[in-house]
Amino acid sequence: MSFTEKQEALVKESWEILKQNIPENSLRFFGTILEIAPAAKDLFSFLKDSDEIPQNNPKLKAHAVKVFKMTCESAIQLREKGEVVVADTTLKYLGSVHLKKGVIDPHFEVVKEALLRTVKEALGEKWSEEVGGAWGEAYDQLAAAIKAEMKEEA
Ligand code: HEM
Question: How many Cα atoms within 13 Å fall on the side-chain side of residue 97?
Fold first, then answer.
């Protein structure tokens, strides 16, 4: 199935809403990750030594923003080019960071669920199945590129 202009617009519009409150949306995102997969806590340098999710932690916000923003960029590429294109150096970097940190395939499903729930909560009434579907598809394609690179490097 190809990615439509409408889907691209839905993702871009919701990213505009998400980015208005990065501190809250990042906490929501990580809160959901840990709710689904408590053991994932130990993967993250900024979580492993604390009992609570740190408020206003720059690394935590950076990871959340990367996931939100790169998924949004993937939506744009899917519509324009029909595929996700991550710059070679970026993809190599993403592959090696995640491999080194011990991230495995099922973690990508956890992060997907957390992303979709975060978008849903941030959008409130503006959310729809169609918005969720567009984010989900863009994320899946991005995650596939990262996972392929991880396998390449392993
Ligand atoms: C680090 C992006 C999925 C766990 C990073 C970094 C980027 C990134 C850019 C480098 C550090 C930074 O800039 O914050 C992404 C993207 C993802 C994704 C775009 C999905 C599309 C995941 C998943 C996990 C994960 C599924 C596992 C639950 C980590 C960890 C680090 C990291 C543990 C090191 C952070 C630290 O301890 O400081 N990720 N990531 N990431 N990522 Fe991901």
Answer: 10
Q: Check if the beta carbon of residue 86 is closer than 8 Å to that of residue 150.
A: no
Closest ligand 1 atom number to CA of residue 67 = 19
d(CA 24, CA 11): 19
Q: How much is the pLDDT for 154?
A: 83
Report the C-alpha gap between 19 and 78 in whole angstroms: 21
Indicate which residue's Cα is closest to atom 42 of ligand 1. 98
Question: Which ipTM score applies to this complex?
Answer: 0.96
Q: Which atom of ligand 1 is nearest to the CA of 59?
A: 14
Q: Is the pTM of this model over 0.90?
A: yes
Taking the centre of ligand 1 as the mean of its atom positions, its distance from the CA of residue 71, in whole angstroms, is 13
Rounded CA gap, 16 and 30, in Å?
Answer: 20
Residue type, 141: Q
CA distance 136 to 43: 23
Going by CA atoms, what residue is nearest to atom 32 of ligand 1? 98
